[in-house]
Amino acid sequence: MTTITAHHADDDALQDRYEGVPLPAGALSGTPWTEDRDGSIARGFSGTSRVVTPTVRLWIAGDQASDGRVVDRRAYIHIKSEGFDPDALDVAGLRRLAAACTAAADEIDSLGTA
C-alpha cells in the first residue's frame, strides 16, 4: 500500500504538470497531486459511496501515480454511533451491507491492479 506522507504541493507548477492525467475510471474526485519523500508524485481519489442503512455507509478510495496507474485501492465502512446499539444490523441491513460490499469489490476490481 502506498502512503502519501509528504507535503501537499502548493505550487501550481506541480498541479499544472499533471493536470492532463485523468482520474481512474469510476473515480468521482481526486486530491491535489503531492510529492512523496522519495520524489514520487501521486494523488488520492474517491469513488462511489453507498448508503447501506441510515447508520452504515461504505465507500471506496485509492491512490493514483502520476503516470495514471492505480497504486492502491480500498474500501471503508463507516458506522455512525447514535443511540443504543447503533451498529447492530437486522437481517435486511446485513443483506444490504453484503450487497454493497460485493458491489464495492467489483468496482475496486475495475480500477486496475494495485
**What is the helix tally?**
2
Largest sheet: 5 strands, antiparallel
CATH topology (fold) name: Pantoate--beta-alanine Ligase, Chain: A,domain 2
Q: Please provide the ordered H/E string of secondary-structure elements.
A: HEEEEEH
The stretches of 5 or more residues where confidence is low (pLDDT under 50) are: none
Which CATH class?
Alpha Beta
Strand content: 25-35%
Which shape, going by the Cα principal axes?
Answer: elongated
Spatial extent as radius of gyration: 17 Å
CATH architecture level-2 label: 2-Layer Sandwich
In angstroms, what separates the terminal alpha carbons?
Answer: 8 Å
Q: Helix coverage percent of residues?
A: 10-25%
The count of domains is: 1
Can you count the beta strands? 5
Roughly what is the average pLDDT, rounded to an integer?
Answer: 85
Class inferred from helices and paired strands: alpha+beta
Give a structural overview.
The chain has a single domain, classed as 2-Layer Sandwich (Pantoate--beta-alanine Ligase, Chain: A,domain 2). Helix content is 23%, strand content 32%. It is built from two helices and five strands. The chain is elongated. Residues 21-45 are annotated as: Disordered.
